[in-house]
Amino acid sequence: MANPNLYIKQMEMGPMQNFVYFVGDKKTREVAVVDTAWDVPEILKAAEKEEVTITHALVSHYHFDHTNGLPDLLKELDVPVYINKAEEQWMKGLAAENTKAVKSGDKIKLGEIEIEFLHTPGHTPGSQCFLVDGNLISGDTLFIDACGRTDLPGGNPEDLYHSLTTKLMKLDDSTILFPGHNYSELQTVTMGEQKETNPFLNIPTLDDFLKKFGYKE
Q: CA 74 to CA 79: how far, in whole Å?
């Protein structure tokens, strides 16, 4: 049964259709902001309107379109910034003193709400998703009916294949997917639906996956 105190707010921001999220506890009104980017004044205005307090910042991966708001956020709020340890070095110029490096399986709590970090490399070496009471905030690892690119610096299609097949495909069908970009007519779907319709979750072998990405003929 889902925790009735779970709070998730999805906000589209910026020219690349990024989703920024608040996730936290309805009762205590503590939230983490996920992938702070593009419009920090609007993010802070949303927090005020929603009557929530931002106490943490979570980073799905280091790419500019998911992190460019961190310096402005930290000018306003002294909060810890959680990134996978594989990408800790990328935070030196953005959130050095506030950076908290985490590994897969680590957890934090906001009120009664527990957030688990799930390392899903492939799009970048330290890409991570956030598991929250039957919900998955997936960054650029998994989109609705698509998945993250692997042709950017640090991308690795073999790693992404294993992240999708050995980690995300094993999540319960009822898990609700919240992607990192608004690339679909839908904003959320269940993992059960994605297991049926997402072509990148239905590739039987690594060789086939590599061919799909153009790495093999």
A: 7
Record the tokens describing residue 118, joined without a space.
């799930």
- The span from the CA of 192 to the CA of 197, in Å, is 9
Average pLDDT in the chain? 94
CB 49 within 8 A of CB 41: no
pTM > 0.90: yes or no: yes
Structure tokens at 210: 């590599």
What topology does CATH give the domain 6-212?
Metallo-beta-lactamase; Chain A (3.60.15)
Would you call 217 helix, strand, or coil by DSSP? coil
**Exposed/middle/buried for residue 104 (C-beta within 10 Å: 0-12, 13-18, 19+):** middle
Cα–Cα distance, 106 to 130 (Å, whole number): 10
Identify the CA nearest to 147 among candidates 133, 167, 131, 117. Answer: 167
